[in-house]
Structures are given as structure tokens and as C-alpha cells.
Design goal:
By secondary structure, this protein is an alpha/beta fold. 56% of the residues lie in helices and 11% in strands. The strands form two sheets. It has a six-stranded parallel beta sheet with strand order 7-6-5-8-9-10, with helices on both faces. A four-stranded antiparallel beta sheet has the order 2-3-1-4, with helices on both faces. β6, α11 and β7 form a beta-alpha-beta unit. The chain starts with a helix and ends with a helix.
Length: 424
């Protein structure tokens, strides 16, 4: 009688375990992306994801039963992270919402799965995979991407825990190493380029187009490092340009006066997120010599402009090749950063393994209580200290599942142990 009932309970618990096995597992975590290593700025621009595209992508993901993912789209990369049956599901989502084709994406893409994908996310967040080593701005971009995905119901326990651990790792690297020491952002690289290639900067008229995050950072660097305020700010939303100009003591102009200000400027910095070029051939074809630094992805300077003999166009790819003593110091910090990442990955893996066991342990505990209360067994049991006995059995089962990594029929062993101790 005991054996037959034991089998019934075991089968019942096995159904619970079957359900548990359907929970998100690291083996179903994928990343599909392109970055500066194999894709030039023009190609990356085809897959840049704007906010409205991101929302459409997330909505389509849920229709396709992809409920846990986010997209990281910056000037140097576009990556889709998520739990899926395969990477193709993520790639199809991205290509359906951007102007680039699946074929173009695959020519430059990297696809990672499981532990390798997890490690890649940690490396990206630390700035180890950035075009400028140690670039810490990526953290804000990851947080923003997660915020949008969470708002649209595409972030649950597993992915949130992973990203939280990633952010903790990145913070530890910033506090415990010099990987992000110094100032080597793309905006600062633009300032370095001007300092090295332009004489008498104070006498030059500078135009900065776009006062978003990059534009704001660039304008502050211009003032701080070049010691000049001969700068005019233009932004499509004029109020933002007015506010920043007032803060820094600079000039500002409406977008309607763009062509006039281009004509009057010696140096032009472009930091917009416009989908189409803002600086056109017609703007500079008949003008004096100019230096244009395009910090935008996609490029915001019409391609034909770079062929003009009197205009020098520098884009983010060229700026990011600049290396100096700061980068050399950062490279020396890489082993320390990787050691911190390894610790945090191990912490996440441990949490993940424990989480897989919790539903099973709860199910077994419930079944042991049912056994205790079953009329068939009441006469057999010593009912004193039942809760303690059950918890002792569960603790032993948890140890075998976690520490000994046993994957056998723990629930049958637990029932046997409980029955044995219960009748003594």
C-alpha cells in the first residue's frame, strides 16, 4: 500500500518537475548583434533602432511568444538579447523593424548562446567590448534599453536578475579598477582631434548641431578643453539649444538658420540622431575650408561631402581609432576587470541553479505534508515534530541537488526518508 501510494505521489511530483523544466534556462539565452569590429558605420546605421522602432519590435516579439528580451542600440552596436528557441527569431524581429536586410545583417553578425552570451553582456557593460576601451556610457544605454523593455512587459525575473548582476559587476569594475580612468569618450576624441589638427582654435567659429546626450557632452568638452566660447548651438527642438547655451554661455540659433551658420563656421560638429543626413553637399560645396566631425550614427553628413577638396570629414570610426596613454593604462586593467566579471557570473549561475530547484523543493514539501495528512498513513506515523522532519528531509534533498549535483529521483528518496523517519 505504501509503495503504490509512493508511486502516485512521485508521479504527481514528476508532473511538477516537468513544468519546472519549462522555465527559462541559460541554454535558451541568445544574443545576435553587429558592432564596429565587422560592420562599418553605414552598415550599423541600417540597423540602428530608434524609440518608435523599439516599441514596435517589442510588441511584435510578444505576438511571436518572445516575452523576455531587450535591444541595445548605440553608435557602435545593435544587439538583441533574449530567451528564444534560436537566434533567427531575434534576427527576424530586428530586421523587420529596421531598414537593413537579414542578408546584410548576417554578413557582419555575431551570434552567441548560453554562457557565452551571458559573458558577452558582462563584457559589454564593463566597456571591454567598446570601441573605446572602458567607455562607461554604455551603462546608461543598457539601463535605458531595459527600462523600455520592462515598460512593455518584456522583462521578467530571469533577465532582470541577469542585468542587475551585470550592473553590479560594472560598478565594481569602475570602483576597483582604472578601466574607465581618464577621459576617452568619442566626444573627447573629437576635442583631441581638433587640438592636434587645428591651430589658433580660439579664432575659429564652431558650430555644434544636436544638443542631445552626446552633443551636450561635446559642447562641455569644447568649452573646458579648448577654452573657447566661440560656439553656436543648433537643435531641432530649439528650447534645448537655448537652455544649454545659457548654461555654458554660448550662442544659439534656430534650425531655420542652419545653412547660414554652416557658411559662417570653420569647424562643425554633428551629434544628431536624424535618420537622414543633416549636412548636405549643397550646404558646403561653395564654401570656405571646413572641418566636419560627424559623431552621429547613422552618419549625418551626406557622403558626397567627403570628396570636396576644401572639406575634411571625420566620423566616429576614425575618432575611435585614436589611442593615447590613457588607453594604455586602461588595457593594463583588463585582467582585473575580467576577474571581477568571473566572480559575478559565478554568482549569477549559482542563483540560476538554485532557482531551478526551488519549485521542485516546494512541490516535494507539499506532497510530504499530504502524505502526513493522508488517512492511509496516519496510523503509521509518529506525528510529533512533523514540520521539523519535513524540513530536514527537504534540506537534505536540496543539498543533494545543489552541492552533489545529483539529478536522480530526489523526490522518491525524500518520500522514503520521510516514511522511514515518520514511523520511528
Amino acid at each position: 500500500m505504501v509503495e503504490a501510494t509512493e508511486i502516485i505521489f512521485a508521479l504527481d511530483i514528476s508532473l511538477t518537475i516537468s513544468t519546472v523544466n519549462n522555465l527559462k534556462d541559460i541554454s535558451t539565452f541568445w544574443i545576435a548583434g553587429i558592432n564596429y569590429k565587422k560592420a562599418d558605420a553605414a552598415t550599423r546605421g541600417q540597423f540602428a533602432v530608434q524609440n518608435d522602432q523599439y516599441v514596435s519590435l517589442l510588441e511584435q516579439a510578444k505576438i511571436n511568444d518572445l516575452n523576455e528580451l531587450f535591444v541595445l542600440s548605440t553608435c557602435n552596436r545593435t544587439e538583441v538579447y533574449g530567451f528564444a528557441n534560436n537566434a533567427a527569431e531575434l534576427i527576424n524581429l530586428l530586421c523587420a523593424q529596421t531598414s537593413g536586410s537579414k542578408e546584410t545583417f548576417l554578413t557582419s553578425a555575431y551570434i552567441k548562446n548560453g554562457y557565452e552570451a551571458v559573458e558577452h553582456l558582462f563584457n559589454v557593460s564593463a566597456g571591454l567590448d567598446s570601441q573605446i576601451l572602458g567607455d562607461y556610457e554604455i551603462i546608461g544605454q543598457i539601463k535605458a534599453a531595459m527600462k523600455i523593455a520592462k515598460r512593455h512587459g518584456c522583462i521578467s525575473v530571469m533577465l532582470e536578475r541577469l542585468v542587475n548582476t551585470v550592473l553590479q559587476s560594472s560598478k565594481a569594475i569602475k570602483n576597483q579598477t582604472e578601466l574607465s580612468g581618464g577621459t576617452v569618450s568619442v566626444s573627447f576624441a573629437a576635442i583631441q582631434y581638433i587640438r592636434e589638427h587645428v591651430q589658433a582654435v580660439a579664432d575659429k567659429k564652431i558650430l555644434l548641431l544636436g544638443t542631445g546626450k552626446i552633443g551636450k557632452s561635446t559642447s562641455k568638452n569644447l568649452v573646458h578643453y579648448l577654452k573657447t566660447k566661440n560656439i553656436t548651438l543648433i537643435n531641432r527642438t530649439e528650447e534645448k539649444a537655448v537652455e544649454l547655451a545659457k548654461e555654458l554661455g554660448l550662442n544659439h540659433a534656430p534650425i531655420s538658420e542652419l545653412e547660414k551658420n554652416i557658411s559662417a563656421s570653420d569647424i562643425i560638429l554633428v551629434a544628431t540622431d536624424a535618420a537622414e543626413p543633416t549636412i548636405l553637399l549643397s550646404h558646403v560645396k561653395e564654401q570656405s575650408a571646413k572641418l566636419i566631425l560627424d559623431l552621429s550614427i547613422p552618419h549625418n553628413v551626406e557622403p558626397a561631402v567627403q570628396h570636396l577638396p576644401h572639406v575634411k570629414v571625420i566620423n566616429v570610426d576614425e575618432l575611435s581609432k585614436m589611442r593615447d596613454e590613457t588607453l594604455a593604462k586602461r588595457e593594463a586593467e583588463v585582467p582585473k576587470a575580467k576577474a571581477i566579471i568571473a566572480e559575478h557570473i559565478a554568482e549569477f549561475i549559482e542563483w540560476h541553479e538554485h532557482r531551478k530547484h526551488v519549485p521542485v523543493l516546494k512541490a516535494v514539501k507539499t506532497k510530504l505534508k499530504e502524505i502526513h495528512n493522508n488517512p492511509l498513513f496516519i496510523s503509521l506515523y509518529n506525528s510529533t515534530h512533523t514540520e521539523e522532519k519535513i524540513q530536514r528531509v527537504i534540506n537534505g534533498m536540496a543539498y543533494k541537488m545543489k552541492e552533489q549535483n545529483q539529478k536522480g529521483c530526489h523526490y522518491i528518496e525524500a518520500i522514503n526518508e520521510f516514511i522511514t523517519t515518520g514511523t520511528n
